[in-house]
Amino acid sequence: MNKKRFREKTLPATIMVGPVTLWLILLVAVPLIYILVMSFCSIDQYYNVTFQFTFDNYKHLADSSYIKIYVQSLVIALLTTVICIVLAYPFTYVIARTKSRSKNLLYMLVIIPFWTNSLIRIYGWKTFLGSSGWLNTVLMKLHLISEPLNLLYNQGTTVFGMVYCLFPFMVLPLYTAIGKLDHTLLEASSDLGAKGWRTFFEVILPLTASGIFSGCIMVFIPCLGYFFVSNILGGGNADVIGNLIERQFKSGNNWPLGAALSIILIVVTLILVKLYQKTGGDMDSLGV
């Protein structure tokens, strides 16, 4: 009987789940464990990793120069998240509630950027905004400016690049949340005398709060690690935590310290996801 049950239930389940489980173990669990172990390692005088247990890497994270970048990262991430919410909510509401044929077209405009690598698109913006780029060239030919504007290598341009890259990640969860709105509730609110803004703040906003929170997590967390945006558009003047990690693994040649920074970023991610789960958010909208 046990053999029959094994053939009918256990064996098919093992065949279906086994390869996926093995894949996750090899490509997710093992690398994470390796990074965790490395974060407690040391380096010798030749910058070689030695498996000598130490907490020094985590102590270095409290260095004043690092704290400055942590604060700057949080400012950039918060600004990016707020701007994405302000821009994405009305845009997504129009897409989700419209019944015209243009709905699919508008939705495709959000998806299309995913077809091109983010790095290439950011380099495109660098060319466009550069001192000899198209924007400055057109403005000078129109005699609106007398000399090229300095649009690159500052925090504002970095935030712009972050918003450009992460805007779709705010739209997608909002689209799901707004699409689930019960239209009868909006009609009931109108029948009870509530005006447009009151309906929005007391009915629409609470019912789509999960999509807002989900979008905030999907924008805020990657923003802390998008070092290539800061490198290309910020020119090293608006570093995020991802830049610290990149430098430790490359020019700094201090892999244990880079691993410690990576672990901290993972912990922050897990905390935010747990908070989202505690508020009753749908984990599927995060891809978890």
Concise synopsis of the structure shown:
Helix content is about 75%, strand content about 0%. It is an all-alpha fold and about 290 residues long.
Question: What does it look like?
Answer:
The protein has 288 residues and is mainly alpha-helical. It has one domain: MetI-like fold. 73% of the residues lie in helices and 1% in strands. It has helices at residues 2-38, 56-60, 64-97, 102-111, 118-129, 134-141, 155-179, 183-191, 196-207, 209-225, 227-234, 241-249, 255-278, and strands at 42-43, 49-50. A two-stranded antiparallel ribbon has the order 1-2. A hairpin with a 5-residue loop joins strand 1 and strand 2. The longest helix is centred in the first third of the chain and has 37 residues, at 2-38. The radius of gyration is 24 Å and the shape is globular. The protein starts with a helix and ends in a 10-residue tail after the last helix.
